[in-house]
């Protein structure tokens, strides 16, 4: 049973996805801080208020996470293409809630960057508060999974050795379309890929993760409390545009698809940002 955060008739709602329909859940306005594992399981559906997916605006599936923790260099092939050493501890950086966009929103190309790149990623959503979560108990804290395109402005990422400025642009990062519960997906070797036009730009699977999901949850929760609705982006495989020959960056009018088999697919248009200062 996948779930979505959406807007319909001016109201923020959470719905269970049933084919082409969304069946709203009472009381919940979005997936996030209030949607613990127990709260989501106990939520009552309102079948009489069901709406078609095509009639709503899908929000980022977690619209306002307290934390978005991202992992860099977490697939062997991607580390290889960057020419770096294999990490012995996860490379972590963050994005902000303002970085997120919904499944049908446009990815904005800011005029300041000429190197806007894609990264297909599996995203983990937390459903139970925890600090210093042991590896063995990490999956008990997972609410579900979704898909992210970790859009990256490479020219800003590499201005300094901190990646933040290349990773946390407003309105850049699609997250969704749905939250998929752990018992409904097999992530032992789920394909992760990016498609632009007819061309497959990234194709790998989750068996190639250097740091697996429990390791990431244990590592992050060692230093900060993970809360319901927090999101962990698990890293991208090889094939990013910056490392291709010739390099490939997103352009106005592109349509870029990232997908994780069994979890979901995001297709977003790319559009030059109209700038208003201040
Ligand atoms: Mg990434």
Strand/helix succession: EEEHEEEHEEEEEEEHHEEEHEEE
Described by strand count, sense and barrel closure, the largest sheet is: 7 strands, mixed
- Small molecules held by this entry: magnesium ion
CATH class of the largest domain: Alpha Beta
Number of helices: 5
Q: What amount of the residues lies in strands?
A: 25-35%
- Level of helix content? 10-25%
- Tally of discrete structural domains: 2
Q: Name the strands of the widest sheet in spatial order.
A: 7-6-17-11-12-14-8
CATH superfamily of the largest domain: Fumarylacetoacetase-like, C-terminal domain
List how many beta strands DSSP finds. 19
Describe the structure.
- The protein is mostly beta strands and 278 residues long.
- The protein has two domains: 3-58, no CATH class; 68-272, Fumarylacetoacetate hydrolase, domain 2.
- It contains five helices and 19 strands.
- The strands form four sheets. Strands 7-6-17-11-12-14-8 form a seven-stranded mixed β-sheet, covered by helices on one side. Strands 4-3-2-1-5 form a five-stranded antiparallel β-sheet, with no helix packed on it. Strands 9-19-18-15-16 form a five-stranded mixed β-sheet, with no helix packed on it.
- The mean pLDDT is 96.
- It binds magnesium ion.
- Residues 70, 72, 119, 121, 150, 233, 235-236 line the site of magnesium ion (MG).
């Amino acid at each position: 049973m996948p779930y979505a955060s959406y807007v319909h008739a001016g109201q923020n709602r959470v719905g269970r996805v049933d084919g082409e329909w969304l069946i709203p859940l009472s009381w919940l306005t979005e997936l996030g801080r209030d949607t613990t594992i127990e709260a989501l399981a106990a939520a009552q559906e309102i079948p009489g208020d069901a709406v078609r997916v095509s009639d709503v605006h899908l929000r980022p599936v977690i619209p306002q996470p307290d934390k978005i923790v991202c992992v860099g260099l977490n697939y062997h092939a991607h580390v290889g293409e960057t020419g770096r050493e294999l990490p012995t501890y996860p490379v972590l950086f963050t994005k902000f809630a303002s970085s997120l966009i919904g499944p049908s929103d446009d990815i904005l190309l800011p005029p300041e960057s000429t190197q806007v790149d894609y990264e297909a990623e599996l995203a983990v959503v937390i459903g139970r508060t925890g600090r210093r979560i042991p590896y063995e108990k990490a999956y008990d804290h997972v609410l579900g999974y979704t898909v992210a395109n970790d859009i990256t402005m490479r020219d800003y990422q590499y201005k300094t050795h901190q990646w933040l400025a290349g990773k946390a642009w407003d309105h850049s990062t699609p997250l969704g379309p749905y939250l998929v519960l752990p018992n409904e997906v097999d992530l032992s070797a789920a394909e992760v890929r990016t498609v632009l036009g007819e061309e497959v730009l990234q194709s790998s699977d989750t068996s190639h993760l250097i740091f697996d999901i429990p390791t990431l949850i244990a590592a992050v929760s060692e230093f900060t409390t993970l809360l319901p609705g927090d999101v962990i982006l698990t890293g991208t495989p090889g094939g990013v545009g910056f490392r291709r020959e010739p390099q490939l960056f997103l352009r106005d009018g592109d349509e870029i698809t990232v997908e994780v088999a069994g979890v979901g697919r995001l297709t977003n248009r790319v559009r030059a940002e109209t700038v208003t200062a201040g």
